[in-house]
Amino acid sequence: MPIVGAVFAMPRVSASANQCDWLEAAAQRTHRTVDATEVVIEAVERAEMDPEHGALDELLK
Length: 61
Prior knowledge:
It is built from 2 helices and 2 strands; from the N terminus they run ββαα. By secondary structure, the protein is an alpha+beta fold. The protein has a two-stranded antiparallel sheet. The longest helix has 13 residues, at 17-29. The relative contact order is 0.09.
């Protein structure tokens, strides 16, 4: 059975119960960056983004 919701003036979004379960699980797997270990921070600093997404660099300015 689909679950339907609306956020402010956004159009309605329909999602199955399985999709809602997946979104809830994904939200629980997220971590705050302030809680990251030094190893994780260093790995993120060394990581490189695919050049295909270079336009996103503008968002950092």
